Structures are given as C-alpha cells and as structure tokens.
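Example 5.3 — Diphthine--ammonia ligase
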Amino acid sequence: MKFVALVSGGKDSCFNIMHCLAQGHDLVALANLYPKDVNEQELDSFMFQTVGHDIVSYYNACTGLPLYRQELQKGTSLNVNMNYTTTKNDETEELYKLLQKIKTDIPDIQAVSVGAILSSYQRIRVENVCSRLNLTVLSYLWQRDQLELMSEMCEFSIKNNQNNINNDVMMDARIIKVAAIGLNQSHLGKSLPEVFPDLVKLNKKFDVHICGEGGEFETMVLDAPFFKNGFLQIENIDKSVNSSDGVANAKLTVKFIERKLDINEQIQLLKENLPKPTLLNEKWTALYDKVKTEGAVEIEKKDKILAISPPSSNITSPCVPIKTSINLCGERMYISNINPRNWEYGNLEEQVKDVFNQLDHILKKQRLSVTQFLSCSLVLKDMSTFTNVNRFYKNFFNISLPPSRACVASKLIKGRLQLSLIADLHTDAPIKDQEKTGIDHSDQMNEQLDRNKNGLHVQGISYWCPCNIGPYSQATWNQDLNNQLTYVSGQIPLIPSTMEIVNKRSGEYSSVVALRHFITLCETIGANKPIHMLCYVSCEEIVDIISKTWKLYCDEKAFSSDDEAIDIIKSLIIVKVSQLPRGAMCEWGGMTCRTYLADQELDVQLSKLDLLDNDPVASYEGKNDFFNINIKNSKYTNKFFTGFFDTETELRNFLLKLATFSFPHIKSRYQITMYFNPHFIMENDVFDPYNNIEYYPVESVYDYEGNQRKFGLFMSISY
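Solution (predicted structure tokens):
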C-alpha cells in the first residue's frame, strides 16, 4: 500500500517507517504537526511531540518526499477521554485536516504510519481519524516488548555520537529532552546505543520505560535508511535545564549533508535484515510442537452414540419456532434471536433491514443507547454475504467502542441472518428519546460514550494481534466491576502483519495461532482467566486437534495459587458451523475475567452459593458434564455454567426446573445460549415456553474432550 508517515522527528515514527518498508509498503509522503508559534518547542500536547519541530522541516530535503505540515494551537487537548469522539477544535481534528489534504493531493494513498508503542491515547485518535478518511493504520511497534524493541533500534543505529560521515545506512537518533530520574543534561545529544545501558539500569532500578513511553526522554532523528538524498549533521548543541522541574532540553543546530552514493541496494538489504517478531514466540512454539508431535493426549474419550446422525452439510434449516427474546439478567439485558420476519420471501437487503429495524425498535422501547452493547453474535446463512451485511452493521454500530463480535455462517438458521446482543445496564450512557425513525446511529447523540464501558478496539496493522476486520472491538467490559468480566471477539488464525490467513492445510498451526491471538488479547487487557470458551470449526477433522490444543494449553498454563481450584479445561464447547470468515478452519472466542477472586470487601466465594435446597443447577455441580465458576460483585453474584445434554428429555426437564424455580431475589434471572442442531429437536416445546434462551443452530456440538453431544449450553445466573 502507498502510505504517508506521521513524523514527529522521534525514533518511534522513524523505526515504524522502516518496518512499513520491510513489509512491502510504499512511502510517498511525510506529515507533521508543529506549533503555530514557531519559537515554541514544547506545547505539552497530549497527542503530538513538538520538541525539535524545526529539525523536521529538513526532512523533505533528506527524503526527496513531500512534507505536509499543519499548525497546532497550544492548549487544544480538549477531549482527553481515552475513547475519543469527534470534538470541535481539539488538536486531533488538526490531524484530520492534515490527512484530508494529503488524501486530496494523493488520491491513491491507502495507509498511515504511526509509531505508537503503548499509548492507547495516541493510537485511538489516529485510528479515529483514519477510519473517517478510510485509511489503514500501520503501527508495527504496537505492544512490542520495550527491551527487545530498543535493542533492535540500537542494532540499526550508528554506534557513537559522531556525525555520520561514511554514508552508512543507519538510524541516527539523538536525545534532545530528558525528564526522568537518572537522566540528566549529560545525556543530551547522545545516540541510542550510548544511552541504552543507562536506560536498562534505570528500568531495573526505577521502572523507567526503556523506550521512553512514560515521557522520560525525547529523540530527534538525523539520519535514517529512507533518507535517500542526504542526512543532518550537528553543528551546535545548546543545552538548558529547567530549574523548577529538572527537565533538560537540547536545541540542535544542524546542516543538510548531501549523500554522495546511491544507497538503494543497501536499503533493500536493510529491509530484508530488519528483525521482525515471530508469530509464535517461544511459549507458543513449544505448544505447537506438542500439538503437532504428541499424538493423542490423555483425555477420557467417550463413545457418545447419538439417536440421530448429524445431517449432511447441504441440508438447510427445518422450520423451528425461534422467537426474539428480551431478558434482564442482573445488570445485563440479553436481546436474542432477532431473525428476519420476511425470511420466506425477502431478498438479502430486505432481510437485513428488517433485522436492524427490529433492533432499532427494541432500543427505543427499552430506552437503551447503542453504546451500551458489550457483545454481539452475528450468524449468516452464507459467509459470501458478509460484506453486504457488514455495511448495514457498520452503519448501526458507528460508534467509537462497538461491541465485541463473533461472526460465523450456519446453513441451519431460518433466514439470511440472525442477531443476538448483550447490553450493559450498569451505565451512565446518555439515554434520550429518539423522535426520528430509521437506523442511522451515527449522529452526535450516539457518539456520547458510556463512561463505565471500556474495551480494546485496535484497528491498526501490527505484529501484535489481528486488527479488526469489521466494526467490532476485540474485547469489551464494564470497568466498574472489580472482576472485569470481559467479552472477547472470535479470533481466527490470521498473520497480524499482513492480515492473511495462515496455511489452511495445517489444522494444528491454525488452532494454536488462533488461540494465541485470543490469549494475547486477554493478557493485554489483564483479563486472562477463562469463564467460558467457545471454538467454532468449519470442518470436523479439526475437532480432535482443537481438543488437544486446549488440553495441552491448560496443562502448561501456570496458575497462581487462587486459580488452583479452577479446572478451566471443562469450560470449552466446540461447535461445527458451515463457514468461518476468510475461510478459516477455526475461531476461538469466549468470556474471561481479571480474577476469580476479586477484592476481599466484595466477599467473593468460589464455593457453592447459598441457594435453596431445590436449586435446579446445584444438582449438576461437580458432574463431568458441567463446569461452573461463581463470581460476586458489589450488587450481584454471577454463576457461569458450561454444560451438555444428550437427550431431549434431559434438556426439557432441566429447562422446566429453571423456569419454575423461585430465585431468592426478585431481580434474579438466568440466560442460556444453547448450541444445537435443529434436526435433533423432535418436539417444539423445547422452544415455545422460554424467553431467556439464545438459540444457536449449528451442525454439530462437541465437549472439551472432542465427544459429540446433542446440546451444549452456556448459562449465566445472577442473584
């Protein structure tokens, strides 16, 4: 892709450009924001580095590329909320104007390079602007290990503080500001390799960020591999120290030095040799090797003989009476089974419009804001309709932090799509009457965020994890709940840096890579304790591989002392669907939390809850077919179940007991997601009486051991 690089003059934006080039992208322009008062160096911007902006003005001479610049006013960090929404006169809107102008001048530009490493504040704003301009974000430094990353930067930097006189194609970044304990005036003007040993020591002693992500220091790049025409040579360094805070700055005087040699060949060698993180690190490579080589793992495989053999893949759905369900369960509202009412005669667009019109009506009737949705399940009859359906979906969820999502295809749904969602009621989201009709949710009212809702919504391409391939967040949660109950989007085995699917012929590799993405997401947000796990598969041959992958992962997982009683292996349901996005073989998803044992004042118990003797769930606890976790927050105790049934009679009796049970609190409710093949349902009374079940038609259901089962259930009970 042709890309423009956001450059502050610092090392991170420069090094990210090198990775963009190494990935085969084509640099066509540079972009920079600088103070309106050119005599000012530091604007104290929340978003942009402006120290050394005068040096950046040389960059078009160094690169031979157009340098676009936009003025910044001081004090325009107006919207400092983490999840940014369009805000008039905010400094982020100056970036929008700048990129909009570049896109006008260079219409075929497709992407923007940004050097964000850990700053979600910066990443979210760049992604917001690029999304509005239909540009892809390239952020290859995102979530990189700082020691590893700085080591690589030093490897490709000049090794002393002398000016580059040998036309070496290396990065030359100098320290121009220090603002951390242990860093002082003596470090100003030094190169990265020179200060690296001190940064490592300070990191160990004072937790100073090695890459300066805490504002500990700023750098200015004087030479880089993409400086084809020349580099900058220091003529003078004017150092100063602020007596009030000890911050030291360096004002550089430089001159442009023209290159004497053609460096294109050296640049190509550099791009080829630039170190790139492996998709599977040492831990995940070890797991993959075990999955690939160990053969059968030690699990008790049961021979479950179903009364009805699963239908062939070309059989479509029987007409089962699935109704839309709206169910309040604790502080969550479950809106399930929205199917097109015109499924028998409507074309795709008509059916999609009908589903979202139904959802729009529910929002108005229940006085919900679209920002309150945490999670969404979207089932298509045919994955080839994904692009068209996604267009309507994106229009509806055109918000800064959309719900997490799993999207699969099942030939067994009635119409062309089925939609189910979970809304958070523990909220301060603005609830306003909507006089207009239709499903346009892009107005400013709906851009007002629910401040209790948090999430991870990464849209930039990196080495870290796949970016979103649709209008959904990777993970969402209510940040007021101590356990951080988190809904995680389904993860397929994509190569993050290219967004291409891995080798489809390797089930073992697909299984491990997709699970690696899921776990990495959870570790990034600090919610890596599974509550329930779901793995979709598009072919039955991979079921045993999924089972083996999960078993070996659970065996290798290093539990802390408070996790030892939790046997998470039983939290998994495997379901066979018709198709997955990008033709993937598997997709891992589920719900996780930060900790099973929350703060002591919440009196969280992992033991059985104090329920009535006739509790219909208690009799299933401890059985091999059931897994449960109990978590309590300040208002509710939540009981999460994963379970299986093999006869319609067992399922019917269980559901009837739940429906007639007197819960100990008037607001106590339960919600079930039931995975099943509709051809296994002989009597419609499994459907008719219940208003708290999400019915999820799939081709086959399997437990964590790979045994085929008739019905798989995820259940949540709030007391």
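Remark. The chain has a mean pLDDT of 86.
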